[in-house]
Amino acid sequence: MTAASRLHFGGDYNPEQWPEETWAEDMLLMKEAGVTMVTAGIFSWAKVEPRPGEYDFGWFDRVMDHLGDAGIRVCLATMTASPPPWLSRLHPEVLPESADGSRRWPGGRQHYCPSSPVYRTYAARLVERLATRYAEHPALDTWHVGNEYGCHTRQCYCDVSAADFRRWLGERYGTVEELNDAWSTAFWSQRYDTFDEVLPPRLAPTFANPAQQLDYWRFSDDALRQCYLAEHAVLRRVTPDVPVTTNLMPQHKPVDAFAWAPHQDVMSLDYYQDPYDPMAHRVAAFSFDLMRSARDGQPWMLLEQAPSAVNWRPRNGPKKPGTMRLWSWQAVAQGADAVLYFQWRQSRGGAEKFHSAMLPHAGTDTRVFREVADLGRELASVPEIAGTRSRADAALLTDWNSWWALELDSHPSTSLDQSLINRAHHQTLFEAGVACDILPPDRDLSAYRLVVVPNLYLLTEDDARRLEAYVEGGGHLLVSFFSGIVDECDRIRPGGYPAHLRRLLGLRTEEFWPLDEGARVSVHGALNGTADLWSEVIHLEGAEAVARFTDGDLAGGPAVTRHAFGSGTAWYLGTRLDATAMRALMDQVRAAADVRPVLPGLPAHVQATVREGAGTRFLFLLNHGPGSAVVELPAPLRDRLRPDAEPAATVTLAPRGVA
């Protein structure tokens, strides 16, 4: 975004789906709804380039002019998310293939191999035309490259990808001898004599080489990013002063948000909560915190959400009255400076015709349009929020390389889910009203009182040393099970588990003891509860047992430990606690670290966050519960969403209420 002068509001605009006579009405209704920004052109490639090398931008010129005349800024898409049918007809080699060799055909979207030089060449040619044509257009605000990278084509296994993978491996390892060592190819007679023998991890008779699989996750993420960077380079050259972004997806395994963040001027997220999920706001909170943290606290953009129901779940429930407003304000409360939707006008045909839109099939006399317009007015009433930031005393560490490695096959348990593990730890902080940043393990941690490591199965030696230095310097660290087990090549660290973390944690794990599906064990000590999924045979080497298993195969053994290390403390959790016990543990760790909630004494289900800057401090209160809630404030404050209200020391929030 070119300036943080207001909170932007709007949605995807797809005028090519509608007769041109509707465009003038769109502009009037957008102004009525308070729209300040649209994303335009995401799926316009086939219309602006109907035949190879033949361009028709006249209709899109009129769209841009209409938007500019209406005072609406444009987040202009590069139009490359869905290639036109003629491209795969002329070049069938651009189509992706799955691990079993089956081809993915046109008829949907994202039907391209990310490694395809043909696709990248045609895409860059279009972007060059697009950027040159609209570089000086007054409505242009931000570039939106591609769309939801890796959503449908996460990995491609075709011969084009195989050749690109071999090139990538050559750059990574230099020699085939280094590759053989990294991939442990002495196992199962997998030794390679030349890079030409290497293939992607296609469908094999049994478990594929785990290091090969891990590298293919890395390579596939890089291939997607190279598509983005090819277009990014054109935009930087032609329009060096226009910000560039792309819309990531929440907790999206194929795309490493931390690796993409340095290449974006502003982080953007598409987020679709499930109205039937009572935990939806807690799940969203993790992704919102990650977006805010990925670029050091910089405000981000909620580039897509649904005004009501989506179309792609088995049961597509609508958002109850007030829910859309509440969840939109949650994004702002957690750092968003833009709230946009998919999409402006609900489609008449196509796969998303039942996906809700700002302007529904039933028109303006609808609950959805009224709620949208009301939110547009609210956001416009508090422009000072834009550009403000949050700070946190707690950080949660996660890493895509470790995620990819953790969920490979042939492990002690294949029930380990990095997203669920992350959220279980984050949820305890969220419920306690504690602000939390989400970071990769290679960031500077010195500013945080508490660092939480839900799981870092793959941990580099440098990152392990960083954790040691953090605790030694006075930090408080909570590490959960199956962390610090392998190196960057998914090889076991020598010296016993958890290798480089043994000295820091003051313990040794002799044996992993995953629990059978549905099995639970009891844990008692300074906290009491039950546990499932995982346990370990832990030997203390300086740490003390905070709680022990009291039944099951490991009865009497440590389940939770604490170790004084330098000026700080390292805690270890060797199992998965139930939610109540997990909250009790986190409360103990927080108390020891002196990490306090944003607002003490919050009622259940009420979220409190703070954004501040330029001498202004905003406290956000959001009631995610089914009943009203009374919140005691630290001093009389004025609710900016109720301009006629007097300052008060208490706030009563209705169900789904916001202040």
CATH architecture of the largest domain: Alpha-Beta Barrel
Number of structural domains: 3
- Write down the Rg: 26 Å
Strand arrangement within the widest β-sheet reads: 11-10-12-13-20-19-18-15-16-21
Task: Tell me the number of strands.
Answer: 25
Low-confidence stretches: none
Distance between the termini: 26 Å
Number of helices: 17
**CATH class placement of the largest domain:** Alpha Beta
Q: Which fold name is given in CATH as the topology of the largest domain?
A: TIM Barrel
Shape: globular
State the helical fraction: 25-40%
Structural class: alpha/beta
CATH superfamily of the largest domain: Glycosidases
Query: Can you give the mean pLDDT?
Result: 96
Largest sheet: 10 strands, mixed
- What fraction strand? 15-25%
Oligomer: single chain
